[in-house]
Structures are given as structure tokens and as C-alpha cells.
Amino acid sequence: MIEDLQSEGIDAHGVAADAHDEHVLSAAVTELADRFGRIDVLHHAVPGPLGRGFGPALDIPAGLMRTFLEARVVSALVASQASAPFLRRSKGALLFTSGTAGQVAHPQTGIVGVPQAALRMLVEHLRQEFSSDAVFVGLIPVDGVPAYRDPRADAERTDTGAGVPLGDRFTAADVAEAHFRMARARDREEWVVGEKERGLADTPFGSA
Predict the structure, then answer these.
(1) Quick check: is 87 in a domain?
(2) Residue 23 placed within a domain
């Protein structure tokens, strides 16, 4: 992705960071802020090891639940704390990607749903605390499994539950477009993105 952006003349840079290491993650956010001089939008989308994310709640190992909570919730908190001073200066936006299992107890999704529900509450608190700073805080629960750009990679993915259909459907680009529009328009605090957003990435901004 970075190379694609650079090929279009966009100044793009990335830093790899372990979302489970708060010091490394915080340093990565600060490094990028220092490089570009500001943060306008911080987007957090760390779900945890989704290939192990489906099954009965009573069978969930405690350690695996901690892993998912660290990925989905603790890393979101760390990234928010690290970016806060920069977002306050830019009056920027914090966007979080999640899923609908945090609202509805879909069968076999307890291990992803509990952290999603916790993230929702964290987002509410961040929204309250940033309200006086004109920092926008948005949540995008994704309802379904968006398709990858590469059909072969999409067909071979291992991050879905058994029996989840992976045919023609909305795409990761549609989800990305929803994030862009939310950050620009700031007209809704939450946007459940799913099949109804199919083709959104191909629709001119302002017409949907």
C-alpha cells in the first residue's frame, strides 16, 4: 500500500509495531507524528488472531481472551493516548473499526464479540473526553467479511468462521471509503458498514 501511494506522488511512510507492546506502539505513533508534523486522523483496526476467533464461549482459553482484549481494546487505548496531543492540535479524528458481534451475540463469536463490546465502551469514553477539544471519535462496526482486492487471497483466507459465505460481496475498499467519508463529513458517530455499502468506493463523495 505504501509503495502504491508513493507511486502516485503521495508522501507515505509506515512503521511496523507490535500492537501487544504498548511502548513500541506508542513510539510508532509518535514517530509518524514527528515525521509528518501532525496527526489528522488516527485509525485503529487491530482485531486479534481471527483464525482462532470462533467457537463456544465456554471453550475459550483465558489466555486467548486476554490476547484478543489486548489487541482490540488495550492497543486502541495506547494508540489514543499517544495520538491525543497531536489530535488536539489538529482537531483531528479518531476512527475505530470493529464488528457487530459486540452488539449482537452471534453464535460462536464470543471471543471476538466481548472485546468489540469493550471497545464500544472505550469509544464512548473517548468521545466524551475529546468533546471539548473538537476531536471527532467514530466507530465503524463491519457487518460481514469484506472481500480482499486479490480474489485468490480472498478465497484462501483463514480469518473467518466455518460456513461464512465468501462469494461476491462488499469489499475492503468500500469499508475504507466509509472511514474516509466519516472523517471528512463527521455527520455520524457510528456507521455499520456491510452489504448495503457495496460499491461505495466507486461512488463519488457527496452522492451517498
Answers:
(1) yes
(2) no
Of 84, 79, 93, nearest in space to 25 by CA: 79
Query: For 54-107, what is each residue's pLDDT tens digit?
Result: 999 999 999 999 999 999 999 999 999 999 999 999 999 999 999 999 999 999
- The DSSP secondary structure of 7-50, one letter per residue, reads HTT---------TT-HHHHHHHHHHHHHHHS--SEEEE-----G
Q: Residue 96 belongs to a domain with what CATH number?
A: 3.40.50.720
Within its chain, how far is the Cα of 1 from the centroid? 16
Task: Indicate the pLDDT class of residue 159, thresholds 50, 70 and 90.
Answer: confident
Phi, then psi, of 65 in degrees rounded to 5: -65, -40
| Domain-embedded: residue 24 | no
| Residue given cell 482537531 in the structure block | 91
**4: three-class secondary structure by DSSP:** helix
User: Tens digits of per-residue pLDDT, 25-38?
Assistant: 999 999 999 999 99
Instruction: Tell me which residue range forms the domain holding 86.
Output: 40-202
Is pTM beyond 0.85? Reply is: yes
